[in-house]
Amino acid sequence: MPKIIAAKTIVTCPGRNFVTLKIVTDEGVYGIGDATLNGRELAVEAYLTQHVIPCLIGRDAHQIEDIWQFLYRGAYWRRGPVTMAAIAAVDTALWDIKGKIAGLPVYQLLGGACRTGVMVYGHANGETIEETLDNAAHYAAQGYKAIRLQTGVPGMKGTYGVSKDKFFYEPADGDLPKETVWSTERYMRSTPALFEAARVKLGDDLHLLHDVHHRLTPIEAARLGKDLEPYRLFWMEDATPAENQASFRIIRQHTTTPLAVGEIFNSVWDCKQLIEEQLIDYIRATVVHAGGITHLKKLASFADLYHVRTGCHGATDLSPVCMGAALHFDLSIPNFGVQEYMRHTPETDAVFPHAYTFQDGMLHPGDAPGLGVDIDEELAAKYPYQRAYLPVARRLDGSMHDW
Q1: Lower CB density within 10 Å: C or N end of the chain?
Q2: Which residues of the chain have pLDDT under 70?
Q3: Catalytic positions, please?
């Protein structure tokens, strides 16, 4: 058996912070896993270093399921983003090791490919509708089949999803949280106009997506979904906070616009009611925040029973290690929907060399053994951690709102 003899965390900031776990076996094989939790990176790093790594030494690296159960059930204080990100890092690193020992890409160990590639969506944004649509046309020219549209709300600064850099969007940009201003009324008036113009300019063949980012009440989300029905969105994402899963019943009663949610979910329990009652169409949980490949595969199998497809979060707060793991997962499951793809900066790509490739709107993880993603530790050391927070939002009257 390949015995775990060492493990360590690597924190680096090639433009934004990433936490990576590296596990080494007595056979000289190592695996890596993403442990990044945007804005709380050092909490996961400490959880791994102080509480998890000591429990890994001496264990059989092939016992992925048993180690997952040990870390989940054995913690007693289970779930939550810090715990599940730490478990995910271990799980992903162990799948990487298993693939390298077997000489196979991870997707082959998960049952083989269910498709030739993974459809991804890009992010088109702009301060105005015209600017957003010009950016969307740029993505379409690159071969993207699915594009998320976000545009500035007239009279509002700092709208979610809109950045100066139209290719590399990084919202965690402040040493302390930036305070933005929000108006639901203005947003509800401007968003349908964006998609009306989008269909005129971009046609009917492109998949169009939109992220509400938890900004609306259920009935407000229902109204927006109904207003967007003529433009046939691929999905409306995170329409309302999902702590109360039953809230989505109200939205479902009033609109046929497909619903997606779950990028902040940690386990199947966060979406059990949403899936069982078919209140959503896409589940967006990620490898790193939902306990790794082992747990996410179970969640996808459960969702498949209820015709719910996957649409994993894939923003730049997830490292290329997580993207590689997500692509192996996406390729192997029957109920895949779409994969978010926000390109990393050249500096990040250099720190994390990878085998996955983009062509004709699709990503493929490649056929290198394991995940096909590595970390250049020497280069990573040149980018020390820099504290960064996501913004917060306040209403026009100064009260706090969901960002």
Answers
A1: N
A2: 164-169
A3: 160, 213
